[in-house]
């Protein structure tokens, strides 16, 4: 080989390696940037206190109940004369909506995945898979639109719940968005289980039902777990659906038919009006930081579990 | 290798964009801010563009707070606002050594919407305050039927939100149960469908809902936001709709003149006619 | 007789029924959504609607600027994301050894995939616009604000970051499908790694790359949160002609229309816009699907 070709080869290799680092650089950049804008909340007193010397954005003000109008309460009112940054309102709101979405989506998606991989005929399978992909392709703004126009009315008229824009409505719409994720990962895991597993169980005298319940499902439970975790991560970060369907009221309650405010929708609504570097700005970035970290951890767990699961199965082959 | 040449073409097109983009000076007037003035802003822009071919105008909503913020950060030329600019915001402008320029472009009678089937006809400031802070929770407490009041409001970047809080709630906090919708249109939409709903917003958006007459004290006469009552100031929730800009924008070499022309047009008879068509009230002729 | 009944009972026992029902419910949900949108949206659809600019009356105007804006947005995003994504995938598949650097890159890609869209929006606003944009303005335009504000380039770059993992993963899969034999044959014939990649491998997995690009495009055409503050405009009949322009966008337009107070007139327009968006995404996914099955068929024969 001529030395010129070897040189081109080497240059190319270096170029490729550097460009491949873009993903790493991007993630680091995003993380560093968010941290940089959010961390003043921990020590910069110009941000933690307002112009008149009142505490507004310290840890206790944000996470503990405050005395408002004579009562102990959590409030999110960032534009009042005395801004109130009760983060718990948003965190609980996010958890409530996500919880409903998972409770709605997980059983449906997992059952459908089981049906699709174990019982469905070839024809039906060719219908289900594209259908799920189609569902996954629906943009979140369309689902939000659908929840706003159709779902909310249905909730009001059929379930008699007022207001129709609430945690439940947003949760169902969010669930629809999450179904494809849980379905795909569960179905994928079910296909990865070696046939020998199933055949061994049947050979030992178990019928199909018992095989599925007692052998297959326990075997793929890591995969199902990962699917749910990843779905949870996606749901908690979802902005548009919640923005349009949840009513956006900062209510901290256990009632699932109350409207709610979530972390991502609050950022979306309030981001435009804040001054760079002010208290409100820093608090919103802090919320972004919490979201980023939380989804990071969830995704890590999910990926880790899937990875271990696949390795385990590969070892059994 | 047809694919390669296709990719080359694609890259060429994109790079020519980048090249032209940097060079081209844009006289595009960018406006953002109040949702109350969004429809008005759009109609102004569309008519002006029709009459002045070549001039482009861009409108964004987001709320008065968003607009004012963008103006301070130098990202837009004109900020539509349904509330007055706050002292902190003026301070930020002064830090940049920019001077604020204010235009009053229309009058609005901030309206209180309820469902057409709701029997209530008038409300006082005190009642409105107690409803929106959560003290009064049932329609029967003010003479309506026995059902929970469903509160609809705007998001906190909205000028209308701020105006309502300052003038009706007297700076107290809204009840957390108020559903924060991001546009007056959404509020009207919901109240039109919800028998127990109540909302607030610019007069121009009243479609399919009933407008309540407002009085300051219980003993006052309640007024509806009609042309006459707003022009005379009898309607207690009459407010100015502003356009804010800075001297930096108006002195700008590329489009300072274009922006100034546009604002003059808005204050002219033609612009004010649009104000009426959209549903607001023309500014009083002072100069 | 009892034998037949027994067989039917076996087939339709409760477990199968339950899972079947679940599948049916999901299909039903999909069907309801599409039926509703198609039935209500098709009434307002027309050539004028697709090709006109918005007009004073909501009913009269069209959504062409929004379609154009979305198309341009997605185009710039693709130009940014495909090269980087493909090269990263090539690195991971052809060059990477099982060392820490490789694991780092993989972890980074996985995390990028999991970042919520709104966080990308924050990053786009704070980093691209205020940091880089202002920097460009100060260096090249002497303080005049050209790039330091929402613009199509920033929106595209933000979306490119969002869709980068999709391209990388799809391309890697396509690379994996190329059998080792081809590669080894190429080396045996004396080609360098560079030549092998450029002339053999890339052309062969082109459909995989295109699939990835299309998936990225359909994802980019559907995410609103990243472009909320980085460039989308409520009303801008003028089409974007430079990278520093703002633009109208199809999915953002849906969001804007949903807040219109004129319920009677805006609802049909809203439905039709949603229908157009869905059709576009559907067509894109269909193309990707066809390409993928072609790819599968091509390699099955080997």
Characterise this structure:
The complex is a heterotrimer of chains A (317), B (287) and C (302). Chain A has 317 residues and is mainly alpha-helical. In chain A, 74% of the residues lie in helices and 3% in strands. In chain A, the strands form 2 sheets. Chain A has a two-stranded antiparallel sheet with strand order 1-2. Chain B is an alpha/beta fold and 287 residues long. Chain B is globular, with a radius of gyration of 22 Å. The longest helix of chain C is centred in the C-terminal third of the chain and has 38 residues. Chain C contains 12 helices and no strands. Classes of the chains: A mainly alpha (317), B alpha/beta (287), C mainly alpha (302). The interface between A and C is large, with 89 and 80 residues.
> Mean pLDDT of chain C, as a whole number?
80
Q: What is the element string of chain A, with H for helices and E for strands?
A: HHHHEEEEHHHHHHHHH
Described by its quaternary structure, the protein is heterotrimer
Shape of chain A: globular
What CATH architecture of chain C do you see? Answer: Orthogonal Bundle
CATH fold-level assignment of chain C: MetI-like fold
Strand content of chain A: under 5%
- Describe the sheet with the most strands of chain A: 2 strands, antiparallel
Separation of the first and last Cα atoms of chain A:
42 Å
Relative strand content of chain C = under 5%
Count of separate structural domains of chain C: 1
**Separation, N- and C-terminal Cα atoms of chain C:** 49 Å
Write the layout of secondary structure elements.
The complex is a heterotrimer of chains A (317), B (287) and C (302).
Chain A: H1 3-38, H2 40-43, H3 45-48, H4 59-63, E1 66-68, E2 71-73, E3 76-77, E4 84-85, H5 87-119, H6 122-137, H7 140-158, H8 167-192, H9 195-203, H10 208-237, H11 240-245, H12 263-270, H13 279-316
Antiparallel strand pairs in A: 1-2, 3-4
Helix pairs in contact in A: 1-13, 5-8, 5-10, 6-8, 7-8, 8-10, 9-10, 10-13, 12-13
Chain B: H1 2-23, E1 29-33, H2 38-51, E2 57-62, H3 64-72, E3 78-81, H4 87-95, E4 100-109, E5 111-114, E6 122-124, H5 125-132, E7 150-154, H6 159-167, E8 179-181, H7 184-193, E9 197-201, E10 210-211, E11 213-215, H8 227-232, E12 238-246, H9 247-250, H10 256-267, H11 269-278
Parallel strand pairs in B: 1-2, 1-3, 6-11, 7-8, 7-9
Antiparallel strand pairs in B: 3-12, 4-12, 5-9, 5-10
Chain C: H1 2-11, H2 14-41, H3 47-51, H4 64-95, H5 100-114, H6 117-140, H7 152-176, H8 180-188, H9 193-204, H10 206-220, H11 250-257, H12 263-300
């Amino acid at each position: 080989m001529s030395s010129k070709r070897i040189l081109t080869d080497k240059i190319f290799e270096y170029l490729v390696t550097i460009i491949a680092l873009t993903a790493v650089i991007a993630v680091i950049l995003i993380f560093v940037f968010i941290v940089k804008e959010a961390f003043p909340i921990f020590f910069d007193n110009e941000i933690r206190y307002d112009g008149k010397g009142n505490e507004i954005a310290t840890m206790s003000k944000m996470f503990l109940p405050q005395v408002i109008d004579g009562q102990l309460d959590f409030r999110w009112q960032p534009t009042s004369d005395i801004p109130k940054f009760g983060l718990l309102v948003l965190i609980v709101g996010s958890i409530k909506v996500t919880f409903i979405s998972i409770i709605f989506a997980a059983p449906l998606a997992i059952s459908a995945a089981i049906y699709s991989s174990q019982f469905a005929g070839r024809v039906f399978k060719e219908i289900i898979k594209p259908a799920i992909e189609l569902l996954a392709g629906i943009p979140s703004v369309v689902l939000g639109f659908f929840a706003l126009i159709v779902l909310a009315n249905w909730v009001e008229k059929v379930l008699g719940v007022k207001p129709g824009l609430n945690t439940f409505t947003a949760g169902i719409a969010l669930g629809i968005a999450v179904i494809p994720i849980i379905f795909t990962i569960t179905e994928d895991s079910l296909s990865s289980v070696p046939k020998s597993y199933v055949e061994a169980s049947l050979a030992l005298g178990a019928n199909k039902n018992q095989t599925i319940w007692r052998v297959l499902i326990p075997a793929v439970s890591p995969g199902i777990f990962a699917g749910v975790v990843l779905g949870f991560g996606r749901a908690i970060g979802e902005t548009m659906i919640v923005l349009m369907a949840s009513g956006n009221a900062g209510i901290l309650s256990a009632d699932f038919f109350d409207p709610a405010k979530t972390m991502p929708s609050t950022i979306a609504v309030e981001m435009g009006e804040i001054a760079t570097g002010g208290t409100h700005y820093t608090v919103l970035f802090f919320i972004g930081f919490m979201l980023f970290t939380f989804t990071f951890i969830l995704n890590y767990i999910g990926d880790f579990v899937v990875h271990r699961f696949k390795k385990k199965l590969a070892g059994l082959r | 290798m047809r694919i390669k040449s296709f990719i080359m073409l694609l890259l060429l097109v994109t790079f020519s964009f980048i090249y032209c983009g940097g060079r081209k000076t844009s006289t595009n007037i960018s406006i953002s801010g109040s949702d109350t003035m969004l429809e008005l802003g759009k109609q102004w822009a569309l008519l002006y563009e029709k009459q002045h071919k070549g001039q482009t105008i861009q409108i964004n909503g987001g709320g008065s707070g968003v607009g004012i913020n963008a103006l301070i950060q130098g990202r837009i030329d004109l900020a539509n606002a349904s509330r007055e600019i706050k002292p902190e915001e003026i301070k930020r402008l002064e830090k940049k050594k920019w001077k604020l320029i204010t235009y009053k472009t229309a009058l609005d009678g901030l309206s209180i919407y309820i469902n057409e089937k709701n029997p209530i006809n008038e409300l006082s400031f005190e009642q409105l305050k107690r409803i929106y802070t959560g003290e009064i929770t049932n329609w029967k407490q003010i003479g309506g039927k026995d059902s929970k009041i469903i509160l609809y409001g705007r998001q906190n970047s909205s000028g209308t939100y701020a105006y309502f809080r300052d003038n009706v709630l007297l700076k107290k906090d809204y009840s957390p149960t108020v559903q924060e919708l991001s546009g007056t249109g959404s509020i009207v939409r919901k109240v039109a469908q919800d028998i127990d709903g109540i909302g607030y917003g610019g007069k121009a958006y009243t479609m399919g809902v009933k407008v309540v007459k407002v009085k300051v004290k219980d003993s006052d006469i309640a007024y509806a936001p009609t042309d006459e009552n707003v022009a005379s100031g009898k309607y207690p929730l009459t407010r100015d709709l502003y356009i804010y800009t800075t001297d930096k924008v108006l002195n700008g070499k590329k489009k300072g003149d274009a922006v100034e022309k546009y604002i003059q047009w808005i204050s002219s008879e033609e612009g004010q006619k649009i104000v009426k068509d959209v549903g607001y009230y023309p500014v009083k002729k002072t100069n | 007789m009892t034998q037949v009944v027994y067989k039917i009972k076996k087939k339709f026992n409760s477990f199968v029924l339950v899972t079947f029902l679940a599948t049916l419910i999901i299909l039903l949900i999909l069907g309801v959504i599409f039926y509703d949108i198609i039935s209500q949206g098709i009434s307002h659809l027309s050539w004028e609607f697709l090709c006109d600019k918005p007009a004073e009356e909501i009913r009269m105007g069209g959504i062409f600027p929004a379609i154009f804006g979305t198309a341009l947005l997605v185009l710039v995003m693709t130009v940014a994301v495909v090269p980087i994504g493909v090269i990263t995938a090539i690195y991971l598949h052809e060059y990477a050894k099982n060392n820490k650097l490789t694991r780092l890159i993989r972890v980074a890609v996985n995390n990028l995939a999991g970042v919520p869209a709104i966080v990308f929006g924050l990053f786009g606003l704070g980093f691209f616009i205020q940091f880089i944009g202002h920097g460009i303005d100060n260096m090249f335009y002497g303080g005049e604000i050209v790039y330091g504000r929402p613009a199509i380039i920033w929106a595209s770059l933000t979306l490119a970051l969002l869709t980068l993992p999709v391209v990388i993963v799809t391309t890697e899969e396509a690379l994996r499908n190329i059998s080792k034999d081809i590669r080894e044959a190429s080396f045996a014939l004396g080609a360098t790694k560079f030549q092998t990649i450029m002339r053999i491998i890339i052309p062969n997995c082109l459909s995989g790359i295109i699939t990835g690009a299309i998936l990225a495009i359909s994802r980019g055409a559907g995410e609103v949160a990243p472009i909320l503050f980085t460039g989308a405009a409520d009303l801008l009949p003028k089409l974007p002609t430079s990278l520093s322009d703002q633009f109208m966008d199809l999915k953002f337009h849906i969001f804007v229309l949903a807040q219109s107070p004129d319920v009677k007139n805006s609802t049909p327009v809203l439905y039709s816009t949603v229908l157009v968006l869905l059709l576009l995404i559907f067509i894109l996914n269909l193309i990707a699907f066809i390409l993928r099955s072609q790819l599968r068929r091509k390699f099955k024969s080997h």
